[in-house]
Design brief:
With about 280 residues, the chain is an all-alpha fold. It folds into two domains: about 5-115, no CATH class; about 120-280, Tetratricopeptide repeat domain (Serine Threonine Protein Phosphatase 5, Tetratricopeptide repeat, Alpha Horseshoe). It has helices spanning about 5-25, 35-55, 60-80, 95-115, 125-135, 140-150, 155-165, 170-180, 190-205, 205-225, 230-240, 245-255, 265-280, and strands spanning about 30, 85. The protein is elongated and about 140 Å long. It starts with a helix and ends with a helix. About 20% of the residues are buried.
């Protein structure tokens, strides 16, 4: 079971515990108890009937009837009212609630440093900030961070940049590969990151990686047809690899984005003409 999953399970358990604490704390401390209310009502109903019958049979006067009726009604209201009996929570509820209120945040902090992101004990700030603060060990710091947070795509990109600065281009390509894997719909579909991986791959002089670089540049152009860097570099790589027709395709697209009155426009025309001639002669270095 991964540390991330353990952390979220514990977080859910703590939330449940917090709900229990709130229930105990907010629970009403008084209860309503009804005692003999039904019996009292029956007794007073009988007395009312008797009083009315005596008045009807002229056994009592109207004045006596009114006086006894008022007294009977007052007693009926008082004795048939629902009494409220106050109850106190058990003596252990308050200290247990205080203990749980202290335990929950302390446990949350402990779990965070234990499972959520243990590298925070030694790693402070974002990958970029950490790299800037400790230039002598930025690659090591990023590796430490990524051991605990392997899906941190920005950290993989920062690590690729650091490898590139150090001239470790194969490692830079590997870091970019991880970033593409973690973010297949983000980084992997961004033209500039495709170009960046292609540059690292070309610096390795590895034939296999060179083929990957050409593929990345083609994909970058599909993602962003107006990406000048991808078009220019794609044409150069294809030309150097003897793929003159492909070089022409790259450069013709670049030509459409280049102002006609610029020196680059005339140089592109010359490069395209040369590549076409070589393609017709099937000339290769």
């Amino acid at each position: 079971m991964s540390s991330d999953l353990i952390f979220w399970i514990c977080a859910a358990a703590l939330l449940l515990l917090l709900e229990v604490c709130l229930y105990i704390g907010l629970r009403s401390s008084s209860k309503t108890e009804v005692e003999n209310t039904g019996l009292n009502r029956l007794v007073y109903q009988d007395q009312f009937q008797t009083l009315n019958q005596e008045l009807a049979e002229h056994r009592i006067s109207k004045a006596v009837y009114d006086a006894e009726l008022s007294e009977l009604e007052a007693r009926a209201v008082e004795e048939t009212a629902t009494p409220k009996v106050a109850y106190r929570n058990p003596s252990w509820v308050k200290p247990v609630s205080i203990f749980l209120c202290l335990l929950v945040p302390l446990t949350a902090v402990f779990l965070y440093f234990s499972w959520a992101n243990p590298s925070l004990v030694t790693y402070k700030g974002t990958p970029e900030a950490q790299a800037a603060a400790h230039p002598a060990d930025r690659i090591g710091q990023l590796k430490t961070f990524l051991k605990e947070s392997p899906r941190a795509v920005r950290a993989w990109l920062a690590l690729a940049d650091e490898f590139g600065r150090e001239g470790q281009y194969k490692e830079a390509v590997n870091a970019m590969n991880e970033a593409f894997h973690v973010s297949p719909n983000g980084v992997a579909k961004t033209a500039d990151y495709r170009v960046q991986r292609a540059v690292f791959a070309l610096e390795t002089s590895d034939p296999m990686l060179r083929s990957q670089a050409v593929s990345d540049l083609e994909q970058a152009v599909k993602l962003e047809p107006s990406n000048i860097r991808a078009l220019e570099l794609g044409g150069i790589v294809a030309y150097q690899s003897g793929q003159y027709s492909k070089a022409v395709e790259f450069w013709q697209e670049l030509l459409l984005l280049t102002p006609q009155d610029s020196p680059a426009y005339s140089r592109l025309l010359d490069a395209i003409s040369d590549a076409k001639n070589r393609a017709q002669m099937n000339f290769r270095f």
